[in-house]
Write a structure and sequence with these properties.
about 425 residues, alpha+beta, Arc Repressor Mutant, subunit A, 4 domains, 3-stranded antiparallel beta sheet, 20 helices
Amino acid sequence: MSDKNLNLDVALNDEIDNEILPSVPITLSPYADPTTLTVTRSKELVASQTALTVRQRKVLNACISQINPLGSYPDGITVELTDSDLSLLTQIKKNHLYEFIEKTAIAFHSIPIIKPGKEDDDISYINIAEESTYSTKDRCFRVKFHKSMEKELINLRRYSSPKLQVLNGFANNYSMCLYDLLFSLYIAKRGGKQIFKVKLEDLLFSLGLVAANGEILKPSLVNKFSDFRRKVLVPSVDSVNEGSPFNVSFDTERIGRKVGLIIFTVSQKANVVAHDDPKQYLAQFDISAQQYQDLEDTYGYERLRANVAYLRLVISANAERINNKYNYLDYLLKNDIAALPDLANPYSELYRNRGVIKTFVKNLLTPIWWKIPAAIRSQIEESEAQNILSNPGIYSYFSMYEMAYQKLSREELLSSYTPHDLLNSILNENLLVD
């Protein structure tokens, strides 16, 4: 496949209205737990408006989650997301991602964030990205944030830090924006029940229903308050109650003859599962404290935490049918699935809806992956092996392996061949059984 490079250095439409970090793209380590990531921005940015789609917002949130808000970036803030990250965020299959990435890159340059100023008539337009690049060769989408965004993302005095997993769990912009706004208002240290009065015009602006100059952008949702309440406000509050740590209710207050204020009552749910604590998360599946301790003693905390996070992602994405969570987690841990590259991970997007290939990888490639020397693993990842495994011809490789498996156990196979020789033999169709 030839490379398709997308470089957008400038906005495409100018008319639309203590620790020093290295200035290199920020990537997540194999053991990064996505449930601990936060989307830290200024409170002013939270209350701003943008016309990004909900999927584009999720990508932007994920990009922001990779920034150290206390860091220093003398050469600008650059982050990157792999196509696996993007596929998980958007639920778009990898082979259909390019068009979405192209539109998202254009949106990051041409659709501004509109931030109201301190005075009623003040408006500030902020470009999101200075440069966006995607290459099919390394399958990474890189975003260099615009200079005007930096003051909204680092060294902040007033900021909000919702968890990425919660924020990106909402299915539409209205629910996501409402939760984002309420989270920025809620004072966690105080806790308990808190009441916030939000001007209707400010709420409509943040939700993208009314422009900064008062122009109605979605008449069918705004002309009548009863329509806004029924079509936007009530469903969004219901979504926040269902998909966040908050219990939310609302009332209204009139200014003159019209509704002018929305009064939100917000409290934290009791017994909210601490998603960044693997022990608490697993307890809901009847995995006992002793079972958890056995797993931690066997595999170590970091490996356990990473694979529990992977389990959580699989469950939330409904990517696998899992009958026994403990056995499935034990399998993940034995093979350290969370740290595997897509090539060796039978549950990666590479093998979705490709049962025979997936079984081949699961039965042969995954169990021997960590036995292959690191240098050779790197060579395999950089070679054409992934293209071979993606090819329909893998069916013949699998059939050949099945014939070998009927005569030799996996242990006998591994004792007869070095892992590297075995892998190469399988991939090159040279494994012959007398």
